[in-house]
Amino acid sequence: MTQTDPRALVNLAREAEQRGDATRSLQLYDDALTLLGDExxxxxxxxxxxxxxxxxxxxxxxxxxxxCYKQSLMHAETCGSVSCRAHVYNCLAIIxxxxxxxxxxxxxxxxxxxxxxxxxxxxxxxxxxxxxxVLLNMRGNxxxxxxxxxxxxxxxxxxxxxxxxxxxxxxxxxxxTKLGHYQRAVEIFERGLGIARTRSDALVESILTLNEMPSxxxxxxxxxxxQHRDASDRDLRxxxxxxxxxxxxxxxxxxxxxxxxxxxx
Length: 265
Description:
Distance between the termini: 28 Å
Structural class: mainly alpha
CATH architecture of the largest domain: Alpha Horseshoe
CATH class of the largest domain: Mainly Alpha
Number of domains: 2
CATH superfamily of the largest domain: Tetratricopeptide repeat domain
Radius of gyration: 23 Å
Low-confidence stretches: 227-261
Number of helices: 11
């Protein structure tokens, strides 16, 4: 039976996307958009175009995604939806970031944040702050990146979004590893792993495990060196002999630079 309800088609498109069937999802979005062109449900039209754009973006089709986002923004502005506009600005900021236009990306994230604050969308605020943290990390401003990640974590905690919490914990852990705060990084990664395992999220668990390895190895090596140094100190005090050199090499882990920049559903 042919589906004539555009909202039902959009829901089916979202379900197909979650199953990983991008081809089917895009077809359903197109069917829904054809119907929405007549019914003029502008908020749904704006959402459908944005979701279709994000699917194209995740497939590496940046230009198609950009065109979808610009159409979505036009309809969001026409219907006056603050929330829709906030979502689209966040998506456009991601496109600018992908193109390497970091100044434009920063400007768009700021607009998205202002609108999301007006809309009271806590989850979107968390995603925007995480994306801004990724951007600042790319620019080498690690102190500001940590502050954005912290804001993001707080928003996701208030929204009780455990999946998003695990992703931002991944980014915080990676940042601490980069800064050499290995023990703090391990603690952050372990918290994220606890969430991923509770949710049976194998993808996030594998990413966190991979990204934790460099800090885990270095933190372990430091612990070994500290134990050797303490043992040498005790030996020196008890026998008055020379200090023994503490040994403990840094085992290299596999680094996977995974930093999620996206939008909530």
